[in-house]
Design a protein that fits this description.
- There is one protein chain.
- Helix content is 51%, strand content 14%.
- It is built from 9 helices and 8 strands.
- A 5-stranded parallel sheet has the order 2-6-1-7-8, with helices on both faces. A 3-stranded antiparallel sheet has the order 3-4-5, with helices on one face.
- Helix 1 (18-29) packs across helix 9, helix 4 (94-104) packs parallel to helix 8 and helix 7 (156-169) crosses helix 8.
- The protein is globular.
- It binds 2'-deoxycytidine-5'-monophosphate (DC).
- Residues 14, 36-37, 40-41, 100-101, 104, 135-137, 186, 190 line the site of 2'-deoxycytidine-5'-monophosphate.
Length: 235
């Protein structure tokens, strides 16, 4: 599908299928891809390594700007680095997953990362490419003007099962029951924080992925892109 270079905002809670779908959609459209969750995870990884108490918001805020962060936008291999170290794998482990909600609730962290995200999006569009951006606040805060906004959900069971598979892939152990508890805690923190909480943008399209496999979700998102592009008259 030939599509004009636009921003496609993909929001939703963890386990909703956002990541694999976003990468696939970006590859299909020839778009770049930005995983904003990986940026929060990378900063969290570094803070844990520095021995910061992530529950201490003032300590987290003081260090929010201190690490050099970089992230690639290739949907097939989007590397994320902290001070030059590739942390793409360790940021998926349970230690970082358990701490990232606390770090991402700190306004100084969000201000820095949202600013970086907006710069990456602007540079990508300026270079003539489209971009799929996934996260929690893309349609509401990072790219409120995105012409296509999707909000993915799934039942708690489906999400916990998917998260368990992801953790097992990193070589760590996890049970669906543990993931249920962990996700409920993170959902609660991500949705209730004061600074840009997880929320569905009023103008986004809600997609329940519980009964769909990856190809089904990809097809539904591409259909939405096609409709938007047709309506707006962009070739
Ligand atoms: O999508 P993920 O599970 O990799 O995200 C990790 C955490 O980062 C998640 O608990 C919430 C936070 N996050 C956020 O606050 N805002 C975003 N745009 C993306 C992620």
């Amino acid at each position: 599908m030939e599509t004009a270079p636009i921003v496609l905002a993909m929001d939703g809670p963890s386990g909703s299928g956002k990541s694999s779908v976003s990468r696939e959609v970006a590859s299909t459209l020839g778009f770049r891809y930005l995983d904003t969750g990986a940026m929060y995870r990378a900063l969290t990884w570094w803070m844990l390594r520095e021995g910061v108490d992530v529950e201490d918001a003032a300590a987290v805020a003081a260090l929010a700007g201190k690490a050099e962060l970089s992230i690639g936008t290739d949907p097939l291999s989007a590397q994320v680095k902290v001070n030059g170290t590739d942390v793409s794998l360790p940021i998926r482990g349970r230690e970082v997953t358990g701490a990232v909600s606390a770090v991402s609730a700190v306004p100084a962290v969000r201000t820095r990362l949202v600013g970086m995200q907006q710069q990456i999006i602007a540079a990508t569009l300026a270079a003539g490419a489209g971009i799929v951006v996934e996260g929690r606040d893309i349609g509401t805060v990072v790219a409120p003007d995105a012409p296509v906004k999707m909000f993915l959900t799934a039942t708690a069971d489906a999400r916990a099962t998917r998260r368990t598979q992801e953790i097992l892939h990193t070589g760590e152990n996890a049970t669906v029951h543990e993931m249920h508890i962990d996700m409920a805690r993170r959902d609660n923190l991500d949705s209730s924080r004061a600074a840009s909480p997880l929320a569905q943008a009023a103008d986004s399209v809600l997609l329940d992925t519980t009964q769909l496999d990856k190809n089904g979700v990809v097809a539904a998102v591409l259909e939405q892109v096609r409709r938007t592009v047709l309506v707006s008259g962009t070739p």
